[in-house]
Amino acid sequence: MRAATVEDLHDFDEVIDARSPGEFAEDHVPGAINLPVLTDAERERVGTMYKQVSSFEAKKVGAALVSRNIAQYLEGYLADKPKSYRPLVYCWRGGSRSGAMTHILQKIGFGAMQLDGGYKAYRRHVVAELSCLPARLSYRVVCGPTGSGKSRLLQILESEGAQVLDLEELAAHRGSLLGALPDRDQPTQKGFESGIWFALDRFDPMRPVFVESESKKIGALRVPDALIEAMRSSPCVRLEVPLAARVQLLTEDYIHFLHDPETINRQLGYLTPLRGNDTITAWQTLANQRAWDQLVAALLEQHYDPAYLRSLSKNYAATPGDQTYSTADLSDTGLQRLARDIMAA
Asked: Per-residue pLDDT tens for 44-90?
């Protein structure tokens, strides 16, 4: 029987990551479940014994720990799996950790296989694919000043059956100074790239992919070069939305900040070298007064709009293939009508 490779990921009922929780948290195959055969502490203990005592003693201790942990999964998570269950198992290099689990599952009668080369082979595949896969797809880049409802529009486009690459969702960040999400940390760079690859790999190259006009960085994460280059050479869907509608949308989307002037003022302080003390003080005064509509309007007119227009003219310049849509209705119903118009064009 040939070894399973990264190209076979979709052929299995489930992908099991047998690495430690810490390794899994840094990056993993999207959709994989973590059934660690060694915890982080156990892995450190065995590794230290391997270096300071001997490989033989380390393997004895490691084997006992691995056996005990796999037994717990057999009595727990794996207990109700049918005989037809076919998982793909991997560890760091496709070595002893995933090998032990695969061996036991196969002896039971499950159609388990071990990923050849393990996570390292998977990571090489992702890096290689992200250098060429973006160019195989066509994109329609959704452009519009801050507060135009671009992220909401992408969600509705997806619900209407369009192919959507939501980079801000994958990055867990809205892409601005105040873009950090209150309930989610950003993934690691490797995890972000895994999410992008997983999405791109499933798209039909015969249909367009809708994506927002992102910059090279979203929060602390970098968009892969080949993807940003493909986006910047693609036609745009340009949104024209009046200021009042944008202010209303932003006060809804950033409601978590509206009860925390201290956090807003701290973030605004980072703009002092760019905007000067007087402007920042004026904005912070509005925050302290909880004059949210005035603050949001000021931020848009004095900071976000000029910066966005400069970036747009440089990175997403107008082309003959662009389409422009004007709307003041950013409700779900209004955006659904807009999404259908865009898809019908």
From this structure: 999 999 999 999 999 999 999 999 999 999 999 999 999 999 999 99
Q: How many whole angstroms separate alpha carbon 91 and alpha carbon 121?
A: 10
Tokens 């995933």 belong to residue: 98
Tell me how far CA of residue 96 lies from CA of 41, 93, 110, 334, in angstroms.
18, 9, 19, 56
Q: Which helix (H) or strand (E) holds 123?
A: helix 118-130
Give the CA distances from residue 288 to residues 123, 179, 235, 261, 295, in Å, rounded to whole numbers and listed in that order: 47, 20, 42, 6, 10
Question: What's 304's DSSP letter?
Answer: I
Which one-letter amino acid corresponds to residue 73? Y
Instruction: Report which of 139, 135, 145, 141 is spatially closest to residue 311, judged by C-alpha positions.
Output: 145
Of residues 164, 153, 155, 156, the one with CA closest to residue 202: 164
Residues with a catalytic annotation lie at 91
What's the residue count for the chain?
345
For residue 339, give the DSSP letter: H
Q: Which residues pair with 325 in a beta bridge?
A: 239
How far is C-alpha 327 from the chain's CA centre? 29
Straight-line distance from the first to the last Cα atom of the chain, in angstroms, rounded to the nearest whole number: 50
Strand pairing report for 14-17 and 323-326: unpaired
How far is residue 299's CA from residue 247's CA, in Å, rounded to a whole number? 10
The residues, any chain, with a CB within 8 Å of residue 277's CB and separated by 6 or more, are: none
Looking at every residue in the chain, the average pLDDT score rounds to 94
**Pairing verdict, β 217-218 and 221-222:** antiparallel
- Confidence bin at 234 (pLDDT 50/70/90): very high
Domains along the chain with CATH numbers: 6-126 (3.40.250.10), 131-344 (3.40.50)
Type of residue numbered 210? F
The letter for the amino acid at 306 is P
Six-digit token pair at 87? 């998982």
pTM of the shown model = 0.92
| Neighbour tally for 308: CB within 10 Å | 19
Are residues 247 and 153 in contact, defined by beta-carbon separation less than 8 angstroms? no
Q: 177-209: string of b/e by CB count within 10 Å (b at 16+)?
A: eebbeeeeebbeeebbbbbbbebbeebeeeebb
